[in-house]
Automatic annotation (TrEMBL):
<dbReference type="Pfam" id="PF10503">
    <property type="entry name" value="Esterase_PHB"/>
</dbReference>
<dbReference type="GO" id="GO:0016787">
    <property type="term" value="F:hydrolase activity"/>
</dbReference>
<dbReference type="InterPro" id="IPR050955">
    <property type="entry name" value="Plant_Biomass_Hydrol_Est"/>
</dbReference>
<keyword id="KW-0732">Signal</keyword>
<dbReference type="InterPro" id="IPR010126">
    <property type="entry name" value="Esterase_phb"/>
</dbReference>
<dbReference type="GO" id="GO:0005576">
    <property type="term" value="C:extracellular region"/>
</dbReference>
<keyword id="KW-0378">Hydrolase</keyword>
<protein>
    <submittedName>
        <fullName>PHB depolymerase family esterase</fullName>
    </submittedName>
</protein>
<dbReference type="InterPro" id="IPR029058">
    <property type="entry name" value="AB_hydrolase_fold"/>
</dbReference>
């Protein structure tokens, strides 16, 4: 359990996790009811904070550790160091931090392996989510280590390798330029030698996001459509907690991609703090909009059943 007396800090430092070429920190949250046995080991969710945030602040705002207590989920929180980025942003656009077995992605991969070994994680139930730069780094991890993840959720993020330097990153964040659809597809396929089955993808974005234009959400969907062989319009569109949800199903009827564009929401993670199913707490970039992305993402992954 955490040694800090701060009631907001529910995380424990992960002191050792193999080599750390990206020079990142790591924290975990393992609930008391986490299942660890030879019959059915528990799942792991990797959570990546956004710029100007910490692992602790993102956990407090998003409510992931609250849900972990409820559903028996292990959590891993990689954390950026200010020495790597003055605004604590994951370096998703740098060549050295966006390739398999290099930089920040390799550090995160080693963290995952350590937690899997330490807590007997079910290797078929490892997931990743992130906000903003953390969302863009989730894109990196899903593309470079697709064999590791059963699913991923990208919140206010960007497609994998949509930018290769800071200037391009700033342009993509504003919705300008970017790879063609065929290039988006090939970037994922060329990021590893993996050939499936691919992780499912959940995409969340604010309809009024002025920091990362929501055109990036559609680009993320298109990046994964051909990989999942679900080109074209969504299989269905439905309303969930007042927000539209688009769903793409494969030939077996399995939901493989979902997209939420939250009308009127700016840049941040959608939360619903109140009510019986509320999670988290409103804060900067943790936006109270009446729908908990944390709960719905976990439901999409089959973790709340």
């Amino acid at each position: 359990m955490p040694t800090s007396l701060d009631s907001h800090n529910r995380l424990t430092d992960l002191e050792e996790f193999g080599t750390d070429p990206g020079s990142l920190q790591a924290h975990t949250y393992i609930p008391k009811k986490f299942p660890k046995n030879f019959v059915k080991n528990g799942p792991l969710v990797v959570v990546l904070h956004g710029s100007t945030q910490s692992a602790e602040s993102y956990d407090h705002g998003s409510g992931w550790s609250e849900l972990a207590d409820e559903c028996g989920i292990a959590l891993l929180y990689p954390e950026q160091r200010i020495t790597n980025s003055p605004i604590s942003s994951f370096n998703w656009f740098k060549s050295s931090d966006s390739r398999r077995d290099e930089g920040e992605p390799l550090s995160i991969r080693h963290m995952i392996k350590q937690v899997v070994d330490d807590y007997g994680i079910d290797p078929d139930r490892i997931f990743i989510t992130g906000l903003s730069s953390g969302g863009a780094m989730a894109s990196v991890m899903l593309a470079t280590y697709p064999e590791v993840f059963a699913g991923g959720a990208i919140i206010a993020g960007l497609p994998y390798r949509s930018a290769d330097n800071l200037m391009e990153a700033m342009a993509r964040m504003q919705g300008y330029g970017g790879p063609s659809d065929s290039k988006l597809d090939s970037l994922v396929r060329e990021a590893s030698t993996f050939r499936g089955p691919w992780p499912t993808i959940s995409v969340w974005h604010g309809g009024s996001d002025s920091t990362v234009d929501n055109a990036n959400a559609d680009s993320i969907v298109r990046q994964w459509q051909r990989v999942h062989k679900v080109d074209g319009p969504p299989t269905r569109v439905e309303e969930v907690s007042g927000s539209p949800r688009q769903v793409w199903c494969n030939d077996d009827g399995r939901e493989v991609i979902e997209e939420y564009i939250i009308d009127g929401m700016g840049h941040g993670t959608p939360i619903m703090a109140g009510g019986d199913e509320g999670l988290g707490e409103e804060d900067k970039y943790m936006l109270e909009v009446g729908i908990s992305s944390t709960r719905h993402i976990a439901n999409f992954w089959g973790l709340t059943k």
